[in-house]
Design brief:
With 344 residues, the protein is mostly helical. The chain has 11 helices and no strands. The protein folds into 2 domains: 159 residues, no CATH class; 152 residues.
Length: 344
């Protein structure tokens, strides 16, 4: 093929991918899930001498039962928590009324003792703080409304994901063969090595995340037990579920909880929760690069640097995208696509 035509095709593919990929996430996720389930399908085929269609049906059904059960558990817990929260919030407002009144009285006395210019500056700062809190509340409410309004689309996306997962699982060997046929006979072994390395990296990443969540759960549970929190097992599980969700993290639960403890006068619990939060952050920053590095087959230093650079460039998405790019580069390098040698 003419080099210019090849460059044009590559450019067209990049442009098409830019517009199509954002709307193809459920299909891509289904493909990744099918690749992850493929070892189970092969194990059933070899161990139980099943035909592929029956092995796919069994693994697919088992996955849906586990995934659906987990989703049902999380959904019911959220509904229960929301109902309990609606009953608990009025009591919280009543409990907070006296401390807030005392705080306002103290601030008024403090303002009266300040010079007029200092009092005005402090008042302006407080007004900005309250305005920011108000904006944050409005943003959270708008986000909740948006989440509720997106439920019909979420149902469609879920159905597409489930159907695509079954079809990908059923035809994965044929799809892999057709994909390899796009390359020359000389290149096919290299592509096969890349795919095997990527498959191993995806499974390793999931194993690493499960291990990190398990260790974090143990740390949170021990911390809550030390602080004498009731229902520590359930509370720690809820915190870890929130921690798994993108962007939120453990701070989405612990920090507001600590703030509530301070407002209601339970300073020891508030300080303890903040200390626990700091310990969790430090603990994760120490173990994440090491565990991810071991599971993904890259060094802890490379994992740390890629996570940091990814976070600085792409935000929270970069924490995954950074190591993913390193893994992709390493997979192509191991397959012999890159042969960089520096000669001075």
């Amino acid at each position: 093929m003419n080099p210019y035509m090849k460059a044009l095709w590559i450019l067209l593919l990049i442009v098409a991918g830019y517009f199509i990929l954002p709307h193809s996430m459920p299909i891509l996720l289904a493909l990744v899930t099918a690749i992850i389930l493929e070892p189970v399908v092969k194990l059933l085929q070899r161990g139980l001498r099943m035909k592929r269609i029956y092995a796919v049906i069994l693994s697919f059904t088992s996955f849906l039962l586990v995934f659906g059960g987990l989703l049902f558990f999380i959904t019911t817990r959220i509904v229960i928590e929301v109902v309990e929260l609606s009953q608990w919030l009025p009591r919280v407002v009543i409990d907070m009324a006296d401390p807030v009144r005392e705080w306002v009285a103290q601030m008024q006395a403090y303002f009266a003792a300040l010079p007029p210019s200092s009092a005005q500056n402090l008042q302006a700062t407080l007004n900005k703080t309250f305005a920011s809190l108000n904006d944050l509340t409005i943003t959270l409410l708008n986000g909740l409304v948006g989440l509720i309004s997106s439920l019909p689309n979420l149902m469609v996306v879920t159905v597409v994901y489930i159907v695509a997962l079954f079809l990908f699982s059923l035809d994965l060997p044929a799809l892999a063969k057709k994909f390899l046929e796009l390359f020359t006979a000389e290149t096919q072994p290299k592509i096969r090595i890349v795919l095997e390395n990527l498959n191993r990296a995806i499974i390793g990443f999931l194993q690493a995340q499960i291990l990190i969540s398990f260790l974090t759960y143990d740390l949170v549970l021990i911390g809550l037990w030390v602080l004498g929190v009731k229902y520590a097992l359930a509370v720690a599980l809820f915190i870890i579920i929130v921690d798994v969700l993108p962007v939120l993290g453990t701070g989405a639960v612990i920090v507001p909880w600590a703030g509530y403890a301070f407002v209601t006068g339970n300073n020891s619990l508030g300080v303890g929760l903040l200390i626990l939060y700091v310990v969790i952050i430090v603990f994760r920053r120490i173990i994440e690069p090491k565990i991810l590095g071991n599971s993904l087959g890259i060094s802890a230093l490379a994992t740390l640097i890629s996570m940091y650079l990814g976070f600085m460039v792409l935000g929270f998405v970069g924490l995954i995208a950074g190591p993913a790019l390193v893994i992709l580069y390493q997979a192509f390098r191991d397959a012999g696509f890159f042969k960089i040698r520096i000669k001075l």
